[in-house]
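Researcher: Structure prediction, please.
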Amino acid sequence: MYATIIKDISNANLNNIEEINSFFSFWELSTAKNGEITGAQKTSKGKIQLHSGYNPSREAEAAFKNQTSKSQVIFLGFGLGYHVIQAAKLINNFNTGLYKKLILIENDPGYFFAAMCVLDWTEVFKVEQLVLAIGCPVDNLTQLIETTDHINLGNEGLSDSHIFTIPAFSAHNQPYFDDVIRLIERNKTKNQINKATYNKFAKLWTRNSNYNLKYIAEAGKVNQLKPENYSDDFLLVAAGPSLQDILPYIKQLKEKMIVVCVETALWALLKEGIQPDFIILTDPQYWAYRHIAGLSAPESVLIAPLSVHPAVFRFKCKAKLLCTDMFEVSQFFEKRTAVFGDLGAGGSVASSALNLCIYLEAKNIYIAGLDLSYPEKQTHIKGSRAEQTFHGISNHITSSDKLSISSMFNANPEYGITYEGKQVLTDSRMKMFAWWFESRIAGLKNIKIKSLCKNSMKIPGVEYEDVAAVLSNKNQKEKKCIFKLESDSQYDYRSLILEYKKNN
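Model: Predicted structure follows.
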């Protein structure tokens, strides 16, 4: 369809505004005072002027006069393209140094093709870092507009962008662009959290990583992990209060599914005589290690980044695997060998657990204890190591209950909605985690994710399923959890360790 339109327009007399208008039902084009083409966007409420009626090019130039240097410029819609062309000129003129990357977001490809027919976009297509998000669903935009190969600490990507949100450019589909703006704001907030977290833990990450260098040579890597024969079904176990309701069934579920648990849930599983197939621990703090201290799981595989507390590597289990770390020490080795296995950085260990399930090619992922809220005003399952810690550090002045309440309200308290449609106490931090899961799930194909806990805060894209229905399913593939580690002997890690120590 668009090819035909372009062919027809290319044969038209572009100096004849009436002839051009015959091709565009959504615009009303006219001639500006300086002779350039201008126009208006047609809406249900009337017409909105897209560009100046006097000098559209000068208007576009003026829009950039007081702009400071940014890593990228993002257009949410673009009208006929005067502003886009001006931005491209500034990028291509290296002397300005204003931007490096140009991103165009438009949900309707017709507007994109029409704009190219009206104005000369040659300058735009000279931009080396050009991203065309044309007809792209909102859920898939993050990977196009944000830095994804490492944690954004506020120096690039969305955290360092000039965003054009001229109302006339987005009036033809405002709900779509409103969703894009919400996505951008969420990612900016996430980047701010990442930066604050990095500033808080940078020294600890570096110290832990340097101490753990000796484990690089002897530990396996997630990228070596190759499933040979396994279930299509995975169970992700977190340590939220609702896990209590599912615990009695997990032994049966493990007969059908690969069980991946976060470190905070390990104690609860072991108490029931259940050793998970995989344990994920990503937090660098000593208190994260305390969740597994004194425990052992000889049938389980522990996965952790290089930056965790060194005591983690003393944990007794079947095998220990390193995953990708987003920080300098780990990156030094990964640049010289291979990526250890990227399990992402979604702000919580549960996000890494979900990415592991996806990495191992799960078809169905069931989640338990991922409450992202405080059902019954509890932070963790009763008897968890977190709860024990509160009791252990409490005193006659500061009770364990007070410590628990403090942990609940150290972010902005809010309410969420459960899978039953009831209100549940949560906070802004948990809602950010929920949004990460929502965004991650939205980009998945052929993978179904369901919650077994009806009291958890509902994550869009995740449906509730009763555990009894799951257990009664006769169509599940028989579980055969057989994994092997491919050889990693082609890399001389010991020599690299010496090189790192010499240069750092």
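Model: The two ends are 59 Å apart (CA to CA).
Researcher: Thanks, that helps.
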